Amino acid sequence: MPRPVGEITRGTTAPNRLRRVDRWIAAVYGRRLPGSLVVDLGYGASPVTTLEMFVRLRAVAPDVSVVGVEIDPERVAQALPYQRPGLSFRLGGFELPVPRPPMLVRAFNVLRQYGEAEAWTFWDSLRRRVHPDGVIVEGTCDELGRRAVWVALGAEGPRTVTFAARLAGFTRPSDLAERLPKTLIHRNVPGEPVHAFLTAWDRAWDIAAPFGAYGKRARWIAAAETLAATWPVAVRPPLGGRPRWRLGELTVPWPAVAPRP
């Protein structure tokens, strides 16, 4: 058997760590998933987040199949007892050892240990293996899942960037910069679009300060409305608007924050 592509991660995981991205996937892509294959790439030392993903996606797509893929043989062996109809685990990496192109791949906290150039390479590799109508959701979050940023990529390339936070778990929107995907995190410097975006979002957050009297949720919504006047923030479902903003999410198209050549 060929050696899996990639390197073993630290494997850090925890129950409910990926609840924010799972909720977003179910809302935005759930209608595409009935009868489809979904891959959870690099689930870590415990299969708990793969199990949670399976349950959450089955709620919107009862016949979806989920495969947890891990590069560490011991982690795969430990996950096998949790298999059930529609949920399985197998050894592998970025080559995606599954029988057909998946409609969705969730790859969370797997690219932090690589360089920016390697991250772009793995994005390209995954895009070649996903279903032509499918999507890769790649991002990072903190240990408890309170702050997260992820990119949605189709076979054609990156589409959107979503910022998500527990509303009681941050001070300013730019706090989310520490969770930017590897392709963006080193670009958060003056002169780069992602830096300009986060600066503008902080400014909108300051303008929305009076709404803080009604709680951080009201302030987040007001800041999103202000930011949308000058940045292409998603303002309509399923990607944007008040239903998503109320949850502490905000999505922009990839070209708005893409690195300069």
From TrEMBL:
Keywords for this protein: Methyltransferase, Transferase
One of the protein's GO biological processes: methylation
Highest taxon, organism lineage: Bacteria
GO molecular function annotations of the record: methyltransferase activity
SUPFAM superfamilies attached to this UniProt entry: S-adenosyl-L-methionine-dependent methyltransferases (SSF53335)
Protein name in the entry: Class I SAM-dependent methyltransferase
